[in-house]
Amino acid sequence: MDWTKLLTPFRPGADPSPTAAHRLPYEIDTDRIERSRAFARLNGKTQVHGRGGTDHTRTRLLHSLEAGRIGRSIAAIIGPVIADRHCNGSATAARDVMSITYAACVAHDLGTSCFGHVGERIVSGWFRTDGRTLIADLPEDRKADFLTHDSNAETFRLMTSADGRRRTGLELTAATIAAAIKYPNTAAAAAAGINGKYAVFYDDVPAWEAVANACSLPKLGPGLWARAPLSWVSEAADDAAYLVADIEDGVHLGLLTASEGLDALATLVSHAPVQQRGTGDTLDSMASAAIETLIVHAATTYLDNEPRVLDTSWSTPLLDASPLADAIARIRALARDRLYHSRPRTYNDLAAERTVRTLLRAFSTALADYESSGDAMSPRSAAIIRLLPDRCRVRAPRHLWLREMVAYIVGCTDAFSEHLAQQLA
């Protein structure tokens, strides 16, 4: 891979690409991301724990900002080295690496479903059961997008084709888009990709090809491309942010004791926390030390393995390949057993199931009625369709209105989706 292409300021779909003397193209990306409606809605979307109980827990918005700061710190370490190795020591290139990484990190969760990962699993499950007849006649490639719904693909779609302000999405630089995408493959190719996940819907393949071509990302097989090097960095920032935040939030919610939280984070650092006033301060200082440790190890692992990253033979998340891997595995196991499977989280997941299934059933029934009957549809269908944005009101082909319907539902905040479901139940 060629770093002059990986740092390209080219904006697929934008004509002409905007410039500003006082801002890098990738800083313009950040402005567009943080001013988007999708980014604002992240403040009402679940990170791990739902609403209520405490005002300390993270939303997806705060998580995205934390990931951005961590990613920028990793990039501050690796940027000058990348510049020395590949860009003749260019200070501009080093700064570009930082700006691209920050923008990618704050964008990485734009397509997150209401209720987080459980929301996307509910969508997939519904299309395997109640909604299976709606997709029965679709080509297998398109059917796979609904049977294994992935928020990463919604993120890519928002960046390139579905933003309400621009015809071609947020019109970000190819460099930022590529750095934000961890799974550059289609659903049909997911089995040959990473973790069985994907970030490119079948109908969005041309948009991804434009990004991949601009960055010279090689195609590895049908529906499968190489990852951009900085996507490994944005992934590490995401991992570091949630590893520490999940433990902090678990303590604040009373799902973990303060000593359990401190002990878990202490496995990431080699020194005890600075003893300050109050349990919260002590936990905060340990969390800061843990994040700093994760930053250094992510950067070191990237730099040590960059040749394999660039020749596409690297396949392990940076932190999982670091000396911290065993400690990270233990923290993930603790979070799974004590947080993700906790009773409050289970109640939230059950509420999410009722809500998302209600919306899918009501909107799909109305849109199917419109597809078959047009303006002669039932008064209830007509009323329900008026609740949807204009882009959802299409009669054919079916996969288009299904895609827009799902995008609208998963794009809602937790609270608004619950409100809609109450009105439609």
Task: Spell out the key features of this protein.
single chain, 1% strand, 425 residues, putative deoxyguanosinetriphosphate triphosphohydrolase fold, mainly alpha, eoxyguanosinetriphosphate triphosphohydrolase fold, globular, Hypothetical protein af1432
Annotate the secondary structure layout.
Layout lengths: L2 H4 L18 H10 L2 H5 L18 H27 L4 H17 L9 H12 L3 H4 L4 H8 L3 H10 L13 H7 L24 H11 L3 E3 L2 E2 L3 H24 L5 H9 L11 H33 L14 H16 L2 H31 L5 H8 L11 H14 L2 H11 L1
Antiparallel strand pairs: 1-2
How does this model look, in words?
With 425 residues, this protein is mostly helical. The protein has three domains: 3-112 and 149-229, Orthogonal Bundle (Hypothetical protein af1432), CATH 1.10.3210.10; 114-147 and 342-425, Orthogonal Bundle (eoxyguanosinetriphosphate triphosphohydrolase fold); 256-291 and 300-339, putative deoxyguanosinetriphosphate triphosphohydrolase fold. Helices cover 61% and strands 1% of the residues. The chain contains 19 helices and two strands. The chain has a two-stranded antiparallel ribbon. Strand 1 and strand 2 form a beta hairpin. Helix 12 crosses helix 15. Residues 274-279 have low confidence and may be disordered.
